[in-house]
Amino acid sequence: MEVPLSWQLAKLLVSIGMVLGLSVIAERVSTRVAGLLAGYPLGTAIALFFIGLELSPQFAADGAVHTLAGFTATLAFGGGYLLAGRRDGLPGILRGTGLGLIAWLATSLMLTQLDFTRVSGTLTTLVAIALFSWLYRRIPETRATPRGGFAWSALALRAGLAAGIIFLITGLAHVLPAAWAGVMAAFPVTMYPFLVILHLAQGAAPVATVIKHYPLGLGSLLCYALVVSLTYASLGLWSGTLLGFAAATLWLLLWTRLRSWWQRRRSSTAIETP
């Protein structure tokens, strides 16, 4: 199927906007919030929507079932990047990217060999979230330093990486099975370019903080993928996407409130303890 130029331009513009938004949040708010929002259905939503638009809603819905488990491969990517990308500058970026891609590909190969259901795919990623959250528990918190504006080179790099990944995923979906398309849709499309820019500008420490909080934000992605897997074929792409974002946003709000309550409770308990 020939893809209209307007669809290609839409993918490009949306990808750029998502990455820039994460960067602004990291620099103006905090890397912790950026890490949580990196788990919001940004790149995954773009990929699944355009896969459904270019192929069929049913194909995208079938792929979304494997996206549920595919987030485990995304967590593996983050773990690989964290382990190898401890140096500042380009050497850290290249090493982190290399090991991250190896970890993602190895995990994806295993996941695509299994016949996941919505339940088994969700449970697989939930176990991975618990494991990686425990592994990351001792990573120190480091805030990104506000820079006051964006360099044109950084803008071009963000745009190129995000758009290139989106085009690669949606292009390969035309020749690969739904299982692979779904797993690829779970790739951190917006988070990875954001990590590269943050790493290049401010070093490895803020990047580690973003990766530390990424697993906790994946709950919204799971909600999104689950909803679109149920609604794309029956309600269509636009309605399914809106319902998916509604479910993801609700989960993120509930999780944020629960986390704030738990932190306040721990603080008050620590004060009361002699």
Structure, described:
81% of the residues lie in helices and 0% in strands. The protein is mainly α and 274 residues long. Helix 4 packs parallel to helix 6 (118-135), helix 6 (118-135) runs antiparallel to helix 10 and helix 9 runs antiparallel to helix 10 (204-235). It is globular and about 45 Å long. The mean pLDDT is 85.
Distance linking N and C termini:
70 Å
Instruction: Report Rg.
Output: 18 Å
Based on secondary structure, the structural category is mainly alpha
Ranges where pLDDT stays below 50 over 5 or more residues in a row are none
Question: Which key phrases capture this entry?
Answer:
11 helices, 274 residues, mainly alpha
Quick summary of this structure?
With 274 residues, the chain is mainly alpha-helical. It has helices at residues 5-28, 31-38, 43-54, 57-84, 89-111, 118-135, 152-172, 178-185, 191-202, 204-235, 237-272.
What topology emerges from the helices and strands here?
Blueprint: H1 5-28, H2 31-38, H3 43-54, H4 57-84, H5 89-111, H6 118-135, H7 152-172, H8 178-185, H9 191-202, H10 204-235, H11 237-272
